[in-house]
Design goal:
10 strands
C-alpha cells in the first residue's frame, strides 16, 4: 500500500471501462473518476520509510516458544506503527503469550507494497528461518485491489500458499482484504468502486482459503466507524494505514481465531464450541458464508463437515462464527 497514490490512478483507469462498476456508477464519466484519483493522490501521503522490525520473542514465561509466522503486505508488516511492539504480529504474539503462559517467537516476512503474488517468496524466506512453525497469519489483498490485479489470479496465489502450509500441517489464519471504500480521504465515486472491489476480493479470498484448509477473519470495514469518529487516533499520519490503536483493533479481531488454531484457550474458555444460532453462527454453504463475512467485520469462516462430509450439493461446507473481540491493547 506504500504506492497508494499511483496505484489508485491505475485503478481509476481500469474503472472507467469496467462494466462491473454497477448501475449506480454507470453514468459517471471516465474524466470524473480520473479526477477523483488525482485528488486522492494529493490527500493520501506516504510519510513512512518502512515498518518496524518486529521479529523476536514476546512474553517472559519459560518453555519453548510458540512459532508464529506473519506474511502479507504493509498492514501485516506494521507500517504506521511507532515501534515494534505495536504491529499486528507483535500484538498477536503478546496476546498468545499471555493466554498460553508461553513465549511466542514472531517471524514476520511481510513486505510493504506486497501483492498476493509475493506470498510464495515470503513463505520460502520464512521457512528457511523457522523449522516448525506452529501457526501462520496472512494479511493481503489491498494492493491487489489498488493495482487492479485480476481477482482469480490473486486468489490462486493465496490458495497456493495456504495449501503448501497445510501440507506441512501448519494452521493458517487469513485476514481478508479490508474495505478500502471506508478510508475517508478517498472521495465518491472512487470509494464506491474500491468498496465493491475490496468486498469481492474478500469473498473470493474466503472461498479459496477455506477450501485450502485455512480459517479466515473478515476485516471488512473494521476501522470504518472509528475512523469517522476519531481519525487521528485510529489511523496513522498518512490517513490510510492504521495507527497503533488501529492495529490493536485489527489484532483483537484476529486473536481468537489464531488462539483457537493453536488450542491456546484454557479449559472453559473460548474454543471451537457449538455455534450459537442467535448470533448468526452455524454451518452452511461456503459461498454464502463468504459473502456474509465480507460485509461483517470480525466474522470467522472455516472448514466444516456435515454427516462426515466436507461438501454438500452446493459445494464445501463452512462454519461461520462471530467470536467477538478481545481487547489486547494493554497486554
Amino acid at each position: 500500500m506504500a504506492e497508494l497514490g499511483r496505484a489508485l490512478g491505475r485503478a481509476a483507469l481500469g474503472a472507467a471501462g469496467t462494466a462491473a462498476a454497477g448501475a449506480t456508477l454507470a453514468g459517471l464519466g471516465y474524466g470524473l473518476i480520473q479526477a477523483e484519483a488525482k485528488i486522492t493522490r494529493r490527500i493520501v501521503g506516504n510519510p513512512f520509510d518502512g515498518a518496524p522490525d518486529d521479529d523476536g520473542v514476546y512474553g517472559a514465561a519459560p518453555g519453548d516458544p510458540v512459532q508464529l509466522l506473519v506474511l502479507g503486505d504493509s498492514t501485516a508488516a506494521g507500517m504506521g506503527a511507532d515501534n515494534r511492539y505495536q504491529t499486528i504480529g507483535a500484538i498477536l504474539s503478546t496476546g498468545l503469550a499471555a493466554i498460553m503462559g508461553r513465549p511466542v517467537e514472531l517471524t514476520n516476512e511481510a513486505v510493504v507494497g506486497a501483492e498476493s503474488s509475493d506470498l510464495t517468496a515470503q513463505l520460502s524466506r520464512a521457512l528457511a528461518r523457522v523449522d516448525a512453525p506452529d501457526v501462520a497469519v496472512i494479511l493481503v489483498g489491498a494492493n491487489d485491489v489498488t493495482h487492479k490485479i485480476d481477482r482469480a489470479i490473486s486468489v490462486q496465489h493465496l490458495q497456493r500458499t495456504v495449501r503448501y502450509l497445510r501440507t506441512l500441517d501448519i494452521p493458517v489464519v487469513v485476514g481478508t482484504c479490508p474495505d478500502l471504500g471506508t478510508v475517508e480521504p478517498i472521495p465518491f465515486p472512487l470509494n464506491k468502486l474500491l468498496r465493491q472491489w475490496s468486498r469481492e476480493l474478500a469473498t473470493a479470498q474466503t472461498v479459496a482459503a477455506v477450501e485450502a484448509g485455512a480459517r479466515t477473519v473478515s476485516l471488512a470495514d473494521l476501522l470504518g466507524p472509528e475512523f469517522a469518529a476519531s481519525p487521528k487516533i485510529m489511523f496513522s499520519q498518512d490517513r490510510f494505514h492504521p495507527s497503533p490503536a488501529g492495529y490493536a483493533r485489527v489484532a483483537s479481531a484476529l486473536l481468537p481465531s489464531v488462539a483457537a488454531e493453536v488450542d491456546a484457550w484454557p479449559e472453559g474458555a473460548e474454543k471451537d464450541t457449538e455455534p450459537e444460532a442467535q448470533l448468526g453462527e452455524g454451518i452452511g454453504a461456503l459461498d454464502d458464508a463468504a459473502e456474509r463475512a465480507a460485509a461483517s467485520p470480525g466474522t470467522e469462516v472455516g472448514p466444516a463437515e456435515v454427516s462426515g462430509r466436507r461438501a454438500g450439493p452446493r459445494g464445501p461446507w463452512a462454519m461461520l462464527r462471530r467470536r467477538g473481540e478481545h481487547e489486547v491493547t494493554d497486554l
